[in-house]
Amino acid sequence: MRMRRNIPLVALCGVAGSAWGQGDVGVDFDPMTPGLQNVIEANPGDLVTAALVVRADAFGISAYQFSALLDSGEVGMPGANELLPTLFEINITPGPRAVGPNAAEGFEAVTFADGPVSSSFVAATITFTAANPTDDGQPDVTPALVGVDGGFLDNMSLVVGLGVVTPGFVIPVPPCSPIDFAAPFGVISQTDVSEFVNLFFANDPRVAALASPFDIVSQTDVTEFVNLFFQGCPS
Q1: Mean pLDDT, the chain, as a whole number?
Q2: How far is CA 59 from CA 64, 152, 171, 182, in A?
Q3: Whole-angstrom Cα distance, residue 62 to residue 152?
Q4: Of the candidates 72, 74, 93, the residue with the CA atom closest to the CA atom of residue 82
């Protein structure tokens, strides 16, 4: 798996009440790298962890309660871990309220003093299997207010809604070579050899395109496949 690109702003949700202390929430697949790395490439079956990152502005955040919607067609077997970020005193309930194929609900914490100001923190992580990654432009993990979620309180105890939301996208690993015919993509392996044999006997144009003559499957395609196999994926 690898991070492909950073989309700093994807969607702006409606804001209820005062804009003071408004919480922006984003998905980050690599919290160790500055900025939100909200797009990740994965092969089917890869284990993916998404961090839910909350940003506090100058008015701070003293309490929060929100959830995450999941694309059940691409997110498999989700599990969630609710955290207690620095400066917060308690989670209102232990663990998330509910975790299912379509959502992980109820990440919350509160402090009775001032919470974080002009900074960001990880409120929770969601770990899941990349079931069927597709680059369809539809988000796979989306922070949201679901059911009884109350949103955010700033350090003046003003209720605010959800601010800027940056959802997460899980997309397929692209083939790394003309002979990267089969998953796992991004690496040349025995599955590519097996698929090459199948495609060769099916007179597949992808095999014919490997070497001249390009309009027919021939021994030159076999030779070129062997050459490319030992070259592996470009670094």
Answers
A1: 90
A2: 14, 12, 36, 51
A3: 8
A4: 93
Return the structure tokens found at 96: 């998330």
Q: Residue written as tokens 């105890």?
A: 157
pTM of the model: 0.84
Alpha carbons 20 and 121: distance in angstroms, whole number = 18
Beta-carbon contacts of residue 20 (< 8 Å; ≥ 6 apart): 57, 59, 154, 156, 158, 160
Amino acid in the structure at residue 203: N
User: pLDDT for 179-219, tens place per residue?
Assistant: 999 999 999 999 999 999 999 999 999 999 999 999 999 99
How far the first Cα of the chain sits from its last, in Å, is 15
Query: Where do we find the tokens 């001032």?
Result: 114
CB-count burial class (<10 Å; 0-12, 13-18, 19+) for 25: buried
Alpha-carbon span 102 to 11, nearest angstrom: 19
> CA-CA distance, 220 to 181, in Å (whole number)?
18
Whether residue 96 has a cis bond before it, omega within 30° of 0: no
